[in-house]
TrEMBL record:
Residues 1-62 form the HTH asnC-type domain. One of its GO terms (biological process) is response to amino acid. GO terms for molecular function: sequence-specific DNA binding. This is AsnC family transcriptional regulator. The keyword DNA-binding applies. One of its GO terms (cellular component) is cytosol. SMART domains: HTH_ASNC. It comes from Pandoraea thiooxydans.
Amino acid sequence: MDAFDVKILDCLQHSGRMSNVEMAESIHLSPPQCLRRVRALEEKGVIRRYAALVSPSQVGLNVMAFVALSLDRDQFRRVREVEKVIMSFPEIIECFTISGDFDYLLKVVGRDLKSLSQFLTDRLMQVPGVAGVRSMICLEEVKPLAPLPVDLNNL
C-alpha cells in the first residue's frame, strides 16, 4: 500500500457514497487509476464490504448491551457450532473472542430491556455449550463506529 491507497481508504471510510470521479479528484488521480486501486484493495480483502451505518434508535432498537459469554469447558469441542448459532442471531451485531474470564464479547441490540432480557434468557443462554453470560447495558454511545486510523506509519 502507498499514500494513494491510504487516501482512498480515508475517503471511503468517511464518505462511502463518494463517486469514483469525486474520489479521484480529491486525491489527484485519474478516475481509471482510482478505480483500479479500489478494486485491488477489495480483492486483497483490505476493503471487506460496503454498508450504510443505520441509527439504531431510528429503527426501534433502543437498547444496546455488551454481553460477556463463557463456554462450558466440557463442551469446548463444540465451539464452532456455538459460533454458528451466535452468527445466526440478528440481535448480535458484533462478536469477538477475548482473553480473560470470558470467551466472547458480544454487542447486542434490542427494542427495549424486556426484549433484550428475553433474548438473553430464552435464546442465547439456551445454546448448548454456553455456560454463562454477563450483560452490561450501554447507557450512552459516546463515540460511535469510527474510521480506522490508517496511515503509512502503521503499514
